[in-house]
Amino acid sequence: MDRIYDVIIAGAGPAGLTAGIYAARADLKTLLIERYGAGGQILNTYEVDNYPAMPGITGAELGEKMSAHLDKFGVERVMAEITDIKFKEGENAVVTDAGTFTGKTVILATGNSPKKLGLPGEEELTGAGVSYCATCDGAFFRKRTVAVIGGGDVAVEDAIFLARGCEKVYLVHRRDELRAAKILQKALFALDNVEVMWNSIPKEIKGAEEGAVQGLVIEDVKSHESTVLDVAGVFIATGNTPNASYTDAIDKDEKGYIIADESCRTSVPGIFAAGDIRAKRLRQVSTAVADGANSVYSVQEYLI
Ligand code: NAP
Known about the structure:
Helices cover about 25% and strands about 25% of the residues. It has helices at about 15-25, 60-70, 120-125, 135, 155-165, 180-190, 285-304; strands at about 5-10, 30-35, 75-80, 80-85, 90-95, 100-110, 110-115, 130, 145-150, 170, 195, 200-205, 215-220, 225-230, 235, 240, 270-275. Helix 1 runs parallel beside helix 2 (about 60-70) and helix 1 (about 15-25) runs parallel beside helix 7.
């Protein structure tokens, strides 16, 4: 019986790390399963400027701080990818590529990953000029011209970040207004090496035969005219898809996010969803952290 954890936390982004801190402080026998190390999606963010008391902190630094905070409590951690979860009340088996772990409760905090567009050339050129992470790969394009696709917070942040080192940045957006926060838009429009290609949809990434990106074909949604942008890099920032393909035995919304309210309780007793994986209105570090805390409170209620 002592091999059964009170709670297994799947995912080491802000939601999972916060859940780990709360679980340890509640004296729960806890295991944290992480896929690529701690931090989650914030590792793709150059600057997190809306997490209270940490103005301007980099995503990597915030991830490290949260991870170190968790380590202070000595929570057991394992690097593994979850492939399945066999739900059984009081004895849920989390199947991973590093073995199966059993938990009385499980907090699913596996977040989401950047969405692929399925453009011709996209798959072949991923890692050869096509990227989903400007902060990871931007340095390869110093003094070059690149394109960012998308109009949300991530796309605009990426364009601002890339403009610091690149010769020129095109922001390709399908509508005539951006979805990104106004403060980001203001910073973007102040840059003279960024050009926004409004009402434009990406059609093809050229260069598959040459093995490196040679250009991005875009089409004006009104005139249907095509233009080839002469770029060496294409950064895709068009939103995310949830990382929950390891289970179908839980209620999800039409996009695949796990349905749970603020208590983080899912349709399966003893299983909780926290952070970006949960169907919710606003996906931010602060809302993920709140879920981390709420989910452990619900775990404690369930265990009692
Ligand atoms: P997002 O807000 O969903 O924006 C995705 C963007 O991509 C939208 O502009 C969308 O266009 C465009 N798009 C989607 N599918 C497309 C397609 N097939 N072709 C062309 N364009 C397409 O996603 P995100 O920017 O990745 O942000 C994800 C979440 O993280 C959001 O909730 C965001 O607020 C949050 N976030 C917050 C911060 C911050 O507060 N500092 C930083 C990063 C992320 P439309 O606008 O036309 O739909």
